Amino acid sequence: MGIALLVIGTLLSALGLGYGFYLAFHFQKNKKAHELTKKDLIHYGACLACLTLGGALLQWGIDVHCQWEMGAMLAFDAIAGMALFLPSVFVLFLTFFLYYWKPTLRPDQKKWVRRIMYFAIASTILAFLLLGEGAGPFLAYPLPNSIHIGGSGVFGTYSGGASGGVTITFYGILIVSGALLAYAISDHKMYQKFGRHGVYDTTFIIAFLAGIIGARVGYVIGNWNGDIAGGVNFSEEIAKGNWMSLFAIWEGGLTILGGAIGGIAVGVLVFQFGKKSKDIGARTGIDVAVPTILLAQMIGRWGNFFNHEVYGAEVEMSSLSFLPTWLRNQMATSFVSGVPAETAYVPLFFIEGLANLAGYFIIVYGVGKLLKKWLHRGDLGGAYLMWYGVVRLILEPLRNPSFHMGSDGNWSIVWSIVYIALGALMIAGLHLFDYFYYTKRGKEIPVPAYCGIKEYGWVLPSYERAMAAIEEKKEPAKEETPKQEEAPEEGQDLPLEEGKDEPIE
Question: Which of 31, 49, 124, 131 lies at a 20 to 30 A Cα distance from 478?
Fold first, then answer.
């Protein structure tokens, strides 16, 4: 029965997603369609029905096939959670896609699409938590931290736990996912302002690679003489002639603090002189892209969750009862046959992730909006450095000593102070530069690049403008053909305005 439920649930879910994506992309490409009709809504409703029923059957099949002995409440949580999760994710994608990629959508419908998008975000989170509470107690802990692809198929495993084939860690997947999210948001902001995509293409690739190098360099410098937890002592490894230890990132050893500095420094140079972006200016690029690093770091931190690392003090499991079951169990201090212990570590990575998320909205929509009259271009980049420096300065002393960098355990604290100082100097330096370069010379200071007063309103083309542009393409302006003047009769003088000399008498 379990297999049959899995097959039916998978088919229904695939049908709902496939047809729903087809409808969305077809509507977006149809230049004549500017509103969702009743027929469209019925079709989308059918997709949601398939996803809801398919999700419920899929989770029911998992419960039966895995022989989970669930009570009625846990079974309801798991099945209801999956039944809500799939349609919520689809609605979130659909509304986001229509709102940002269909500028000709009727204004009143666009308003409702935005409202539904916010509702879908909340329902997706609620559904995930509900699903986790139902299925969480029956998972084996610690959870796998990688996917192995080999002769035995595709399955979850632990780093180094499978030989042959290819092993992809969740940490790597999450770091790349976070970077892509930051790129997508930055790219879209540039589209909103300048009407073109791809401004960050070259910058993103080079800055991402520079960030990896910077993260490794920061780790090597911090652990040059080892750390208090018995980590790699690079000075000793070099003395032994093991130069490859400097580059062995596959063995772990990256610091976000070094990676962000490396990526930002190189990214600014590439953006300033890039072919697609040099006309925009590096300070504008900083204001748009740098705050999104907080979102990338928030997602990347969940790699620490799967790796069971970057945690705080050991506490009683019951003291973390306000956290989701799966998160609490994964943070257990030990596991016996997949059963978590009664004590757990404080999930500092989770706290830092929430602080990063809050920091993004505070910098972009708090500082960027409330202080926009006093902002100068580049200030939001400095605000990022100061915010992240303060967050790390507060959290570093709370970390478990096994995750402190440096022989004295204070290397990350030093980095945090450097971040705060660089951010403050950056903001002060930009304001002083604008004062002496613009104000003292009687020139007008450019308005802030991200949330400015006038031209930087960050609004997509309005419905009326988009429709007018479509009409222009339909009926191009006709060029008036010059009238051919009649040839003058013999002996008649030409007018002086024709550029001819007066006839000689």
Answer: 31
